[in-house]
Design a protein that fits this description.
By secondary structure, the chain is α+β, with helices and mostly antiparallel strands. The protein is built from 5 helices and 6 strands. Strands 1, 2, 3, 4, 5 and 6 form a 6-stranded mixed beta sheet that branches.
Length: 151
């Protein structure tokens, strides 16, 4: 990984959606960033501590079944699903976009990405915009970020 924490910042949902639509095989990772991740180069299973063959990330590619729906709403949903991670994982954790090669699947079936190329940070304003976009949906009351902790 050629880690750089001085990456460009994607500041709007539209900007992120345009990058996702123009560049296939992008992922979002919630961590302290490429430089911090370069030191570990792989994730660990939270339950067992087993080293995983790559960095845990979530795909941003718009799936064909999404049809003609907004790419912005797709990306908003992908971000919203994991927007709890900065609170759960601690200070300095934030989302960033990367490209890479899938080296396997993690215990939640998430891609484990290797040969990582950092693309850009996702600004906090994008997370807020994503939250609003999801909350505007008809079934938003039934929806929420994915969580592992017991409530």
């Amino acid at each position: 990984m050629n880690a750089r924490d001085d990456l460009p910042v994607l500041r709007t949902l539209r900007e992120l959606a345009e990058v996702v639509q123009s560049t296939p095989h992008l992922y979002v990772r919630w961590s302290q960033g490429p430089q911090a991740d370069e030191a570990i180069a792989e994730s660990r299973d939270g339950l067992t501590g087993i080293r995983l063959p790559g960095l845990s990330a979530n795909p941003l590619d718009v799936e064909p079944w999404w049809e003609d729906r907004s790419a912005e709403l797709w990306v908003a949903r992908r971000l919203y699903d994991y927007s709890h991670l900065p609170r759960d994982k601690g200070e300095g954790v934030r989302p960033w976009v990367l490209r890479g090669r899938v080296g396997g699947r993690g215990p939640d079936n998430e891609p484990l990405v290797r040969d990582v190329k950092p693309i850009g940070w996702i600004g906090e304003s994008v997370i807020e915009e994503a939250r609003r976009a999801v909350q505007e949906q008809e079934r938003a009351r039934e929806w929420g970020p994915m969580r592992r902790r017991a409530r």
